[in-house]
């Protein structure tokens, strides 16, 4: 009898132990399915933190937000305020199942429902050489009815000049007391790469402040007003524009995207995506003396930070070319291909590494190509939103940058204003 009781107790103990194990695995599975993989930013030298993040006595980071993803240098962890559960990178790996789309939507929704009201901030970057072009860009957007556009100046001269103008929103690209300031310095190639890379430092800070970002080059031509809610109310985290034939080295994949024309949602997936760009650019992170509140949300500046240096267009396209973010396409038949030629339509997909969903605007919507159209036509005038002419039609040689960009605008409206044919249809601004 005693022997039977012993066997019964042992059997019940084993059953209870097995049930506890199963329940624990279900719990871990739920947490795993609810979050995205952060491998794209592993071992990066910075931390993805929000402005309210604090460190406790054990060195763990906590935030006033419900859930905060951080980078510790060794592994990614999630710290929840509810129960202080810490999940390491192994649990965060994204699965290749059909729930991936729902995961991205859940992450985006959690940020959209935060106390910070999200809106799109339209940003163009300039230095002293392009400050007049940036000024024209700002005034054009104002005339179209936009109200949330600003210029991020990369040096003191452009910042001073633009602040002297009336009704112009301008702010520094980095905090002026940063080790990376002024961003615009060095020889021409060094200067360009510092500006192109550091604008992503600015973008990272803005996304963490709760702002969506429409990044444009200062010489992009906005031809009509399109409500920004078109992107804000969509299911996508990042919109890209086709970029013609540059960089050439990536054309064999069937398309290339522009570094200077993109929309980015303030979501965790987008933050991971931008962080992966900065990692590839070799960004050194924040300054050692940076503290919460340095150039905070009130003036729109990043905290004190180092400048980055790279050709961001090469970096962004390399992620598609080498598929380092494990991109998948929603519809294989709409994936951009060489045989489709220049005039490509819309396409979309997602990254299984960062979790962000992306969409490529059609070439008609955001056109980058010859100033007088391409392959016998201009972009559809009923669709076209932004034009990025790549040339001027003039016999003048060695035009200065300001004259060259102004001429591109004039010739664009002369040759492609009606969007139906190549030819001089009259110049009217």
Top keywords for this entry?
429 residues, alpha/beta, nine-stranded mixed beta sheet, three-stranded antiparallel beta sheet, 10 helices, 17 strands, 32% helix, globular, disordered C terminus
Describe the protein.
The chain is α/β, with parallel strands linked by helices and 429 residues long. 32% of the residues lie in helices and 17% in strands. The protein is built from 10 helices and 17 strands. The protein has helices spanning 2-34, 89-92, 100-112, 131-144, 156-163, 188-208, 229-232, 268-280, 312-321, 401-416, and strands spanning 54-55, 61-62, 67-71, 76-80, 86-87, 119-126, 149-153, 170-172, 211-216, 221-222, 238-242, 257-264, 327-329, 347-351, 357-360, 366-369, 386-389. The chain has a 9-stranded mixed sheet, sandwiched between helices. Strands 3-4-5 form a 3-stranded antiparallel sheet. Strands 10-17-16 form a 3-stranded mixed sheet. Strand 6, helix 4 and strand 7 form a beta-alpha-beta unit. Helix 6 packs antiparallel against helix 8 (268-280). It is globular. The termini are far apart.
